[in-house]
């Protein structure tokens, strides 16, 4: 049961001390553990031992760092991508095109053409309109796109509203009530081989019941489609398995998820596709930061760190909890507001949090930052982009350079007529 514990991975399983990384690379910096990424890939794979025919495609959006993708690709994973940019990254990391699945509600014609030309394994079509357009693009090129139809099963995943994707009023997939009719229409088009269905109901799921409900609905749909004379060979069950963010928090283990999937799908006779993101990368990374100063507050002091909402957006965006602790715990504790330097009150990681007693200059980490961390960074307040480091036993490498604060990008122009 140690797959996602906090105290191994970057902080303890690797031999490179975080203070050395801070000294050599500077802070803030994301630090990922190769050993933990590989272990999570293996644990997830082993959890699905009861599923004979499968593709596990890492959700690139969770962590598109090239080195991370390379580690996961070498561990046997394919890629779930939602843009041509993610597709290019997966390919550059050596992931074979036929192990790439393209999801997303707004694929442009240019993106679909690029993915057709790259020969990706499957398009997850999110609407009738998209299916018709893809069919035309493929047929015009004498190609056949391998496709699944993404279904919106109208199941409440019980997660944060902003990352729920399977309720009827969410923008994803086609309503399950119309799925049979839309499948029939698209299956008849030249240019597509509609070979299955797909579902993804949301992220950071703390309970298997909504997933099971969605999968049951999908199973019934597969039976109905076959009853109507369609061939169904592939079903994509998406991602969504949650991870613990709080010490001691208990979430469904991958093994429990795998057992449920094997039970629900045992008679389906299809290749199953999985798109895990957070469960693979979340607890394989931390955001390493330094305390700039501690400011007296009316109630609790403000611990001002050099990381901010532009580096780790989840607390500001979803009110998300990230465990915060000193790299070298002083023993003493304090209650503090943990904030970044950005000029918005939203740049707050935690209010009234009990944590290690920290002083200016101390190093600390936000845990569980390997997924939806660096990938959601921005340069707001002209802070530049955070660096990323991969640790592997007794060595480490910078795998994404810091873009310095206030850097003027090649892409930026001041028109001559401004004088
Ligand atoms: C289509 C799709 N697949 C996979 C994922 C990965 O989800 P998670 O990181 O929760 O496993 C997402 C994000 O929620 C998604 O939108
Ligand atoms: N960005 C979200 C997850 C979104 C999942 C993408 N479908 C998070 O940080 O929790």
From TrEMBL:
GO terms, biological process: lysine biosynthetic process via diaminopimelate
Cofactor: pyridoxal 5'-phosphate
Catalytic activity from the UniProt record: meso-2,6-diaminopimelate + H(+) = L-lysine + CO2
Positions of substrate binding: 278, 314, 318, 344, 372
Enzyme class: lyase
Segments passing through the bilayer: none
Domain called Orn/DAP/Arg decarboxylase 2 N-terminal: residue spans: 35-281
Keywords associated with the record: Amino-acid biosynthesis, Decarboxylase, Lyase, Lysine biosynthesis, Pyridoxal phosphate
Chain positions recorded as pyridoxal 5'-phosphate binding sites: 240, 275-278, 372
Orn/DAP/Arg decarboxylase 2 C-terminal domain residues: 30-370
Active site per database record: 343
PANTHER family: DIAMINOPIMELATE DECARBOXYLASE, GROUP IV DECARBOXYLASE
Family membership noted in the UniProt record: Belongs to the Orn/Lys/Arg decarboxylase class-II family. LysA subfamily.
Protein name in UniProt: Diaminopimelate decarboxylase
Upper lineage: Bacteria, Pseudomonadati, Pseudomonadota, Alphaproteobacteria, Sphingomonadales
């Amino acid at each position: 049961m140690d797959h996602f514990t906090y105290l191994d991975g970057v902080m303890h399983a690797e031999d490179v001390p975080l203070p050395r990384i801070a000294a050599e690379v500077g802070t803030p910096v994301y630090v990922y553990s190769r050993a933990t990424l590989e272990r999570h890939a293996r644990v997830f794979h082993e959890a699905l031992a009861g599923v004979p025919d499968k593709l596990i495609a890492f959700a690139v959006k969770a962590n598109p760092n090239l080195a991370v993708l390379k580690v996961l690709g070498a561990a046997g994973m394919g890629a779930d991508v939602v843009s041509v940019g993610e597709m290019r990254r997966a390919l550059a990391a050596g992931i074979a095109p036929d192990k790439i699945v393209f999801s997303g509600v707004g694929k442009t014609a240019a993106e679909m053409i690029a993915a057709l030309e790259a020969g990706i394994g499957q398009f997850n079509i999110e609407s009738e309109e998209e299916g018709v357009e893809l069919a035309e693009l493929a047929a015009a090129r004498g190609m056949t796109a391998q496709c699944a139809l993404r279904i919106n099963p109208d199941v409440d995943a019980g997660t944060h509203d902003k990352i729920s994707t399977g309720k009827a009023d969410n923008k994803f997939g086609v309503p399950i009530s119309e799925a049979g009719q839309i499948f029939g229409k698209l299956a008849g088009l030249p240019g597509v081989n509609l070979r299955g269905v797909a579902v993804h109901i949301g992220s950071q799921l703390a309970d298997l019941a909504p997933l099971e409900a969605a999968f049951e609905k999908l199973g019934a749909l597969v039976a109905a489609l076959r009853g109507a004379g369609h061939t169904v060979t592939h079903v994509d069950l998406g991602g969504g398995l949650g991870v613990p963010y709080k010490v001691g928090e208990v979430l469904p283990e991958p093994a429990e998820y795998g057992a449920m999937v094997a039970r629900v799908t045992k008679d389906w006779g299809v290749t199953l596709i999985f798109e895990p993101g957070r469960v693979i990368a979340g607890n394989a990374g931390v955001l390493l930061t330094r305390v700039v100063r501690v400011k007296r507050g009316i109630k609790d002091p403000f611990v001002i760190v050099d990381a901010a909402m532009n580096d780790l957006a989840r607390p500001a965006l979803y009110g998300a909890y990230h465990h915060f602790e000193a790299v070298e715990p002083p023993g003493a504790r304090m209650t503090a507001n943990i904030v970044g330097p950005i000029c918005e009150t939203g740049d707050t990681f935690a209010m009234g949090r009990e944590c290690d007693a920290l002083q200016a200059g101390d190093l600390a980490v936000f845990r569980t930052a390997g997924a939806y961390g660096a990938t959601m960074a921005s340069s707001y307040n002209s802070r530049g982009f955070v660096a990323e480091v991969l640790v592997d036993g007794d060595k480490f490498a910078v795998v994404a350079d810091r873009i310095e604060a206030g850097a003027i990008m090649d892409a930026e122009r001041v028109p001559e007529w401004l004088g």
